[in-house]
Amino acid sequence: MTMPMKASPVLLAVAATMTAACLSIMSGWQRGGFLAERLLLVCVGVVLVVAAHLLPALSRPHGWRIRALGMTLWIGCMTATCYGHAGFFAMAQKHAGEVRAAVVPVVVVPSRNLAEIASDRAGIVARLARVTERRCSDRCASARIERTTLNARLVALDAESAEVTRRELAIERTNAERTAAKGDPLAGLLTAFGITASRVDLVVGMAFAVVIEGVACFCWLLALRPAHTTANAVTPAQEVSHEPLVTRVAPASTVVASDGNDVTELVETANSPAGEPADDLARVLTAIRDGTLRGTVTEIRKHLGCSQAKAAGLRKQLVLHA
Predict the structure, then answer these.
(1) How far apart are CA 122 and CA 112, in angstroms?
(2) Cα distances (Å, whole numbers) of residue 295 to 29, 46, 127, 268, 317
(3) Distance CA 150, CA 132 (A)
(4) Does the pLDDT value for residue 145 go beyond 90?
(5) The pLDDT of residue 225
């Protein structure tokens, strides 16, 4: 049975298969470590993609056993292919997030933290307390200078502490912006329904994979659709002519075909079939003689309510008697 290619869906089918194959190539290349591992994973992914797309169309003309086996293999291929594509989408989203996060400005980390500044401040406060409690005799001027110096250092430490606090807050905001930039904006909206961002990425990637695989399979089904067939195949010898049947018989009687031409019909023949086939043949000949039936397999089948094979056999007998 030939399966001609339909020009309309085959373009979309080829495009979908090539896209899915590229996804499998990238997915296998990302998962592999050594070059040989990457190449083997790429080959496996491409074979699974082509098998998932073509198995339904290739197994359709066969019997139910072949179709059942093909369906089982198709489910396995689809599962593996969708898993690989979902991994590719997740990895692509990760890379896109890293690119978006790289755009966020970098805040310079302060040289000292708040703990170190607090320790220095505590030491200066202690020295200031000792200078303040010192008795002032002939060294009052030096004591006042030291107190002023210590107070100035306290002010400087307070300013440094405020700057460190500001920078730490800026770093926290930057980290939050970088984390938000790494996530998919649409996935961030879906997290409002109680779904974590990682699950959203997985579900979205799997949905994309299933859709593209489904499109490819459906388009290949249309592209490799068999030619118009009936329940039972008709051999070339049984092919039906749409011209009215005209039989040549002995000059016993004259009949009129469906196109109005005068023809003769064989009324009695020595080698005519016996029993029910002869009755069916007689009914067909009578209908043709009355002009209510054209001698085609389709109309014979409709007239007698029989199977396609039986109608083809009666048609062949009519041709032999012609």
Answers:
(1) 16
(2) 64, 52, 123, 19, 11
(3) 11
(4) no
(5) 76
- The model carries a pTM of 0.52
Q: Which residues pair with 254 in a beta bridge?
A: 264
The predicted-structure confidence for 238-257, as pLDDT tens digits, reads as follows: 444 444 444 443 333 343 44
CA angle 62, 68, 72 (to 5 degrees): 130
Q: What is the 3-state secondary structure (H, E, C) of the chain?
A: CCCCCCHHHHHHHHHHHHHHHHHHHHHHHHHCCCHHHHHHHHHHHHHHHHHHHHHHHHHCCCCHHHHHHHHHHHHHHHHHHHHHHHHHHHHHHHHHHHHHHHCCCCCCCCCCCHHHHHHHHHHHHHHHHHHHHCCCCCCHHHHHHHHHHHHHHHHHHHHHHHHHHHHHHHHHHHHHHHHHHHCCHHHHHHHHHCCCHHHHHHHHHHHHHHHHHHHHHHHHHHHCCCCCCCCCCCCHHHCCCCCCCCCCCCCCCEEECCCCCEEECCCCCCCCCCCHHHHHHHHHHHHHHHCCCCCCHHHHHHHHCCCHHHHHHHHHHHHHHC
Structure-token pair, residue 27: 């997915």
CB–CB of 312/238 below 8 Å? yes
Q: Could you give the CA distance from residue 123 to residue 120 in angstroms, rounded to a whole number? A: 5
Q: What is the C-alpha to C-alpha distance for residues 307 and 238, in angstroms, rounded to an integer?
A: 14
Please provide the size of the chain in residues.
322
φ, ψ of residue 27 to 5 degrees: the values are: -65, -45
In our burial notation (b when 16+ CB lie closer than 10 A, e otherwise), range 41-68 reads bbeebbebbbbbbbbbbebeeeeeeebe
What is the rounded CA–CA span in Å between residue 179 and residue 262? 91
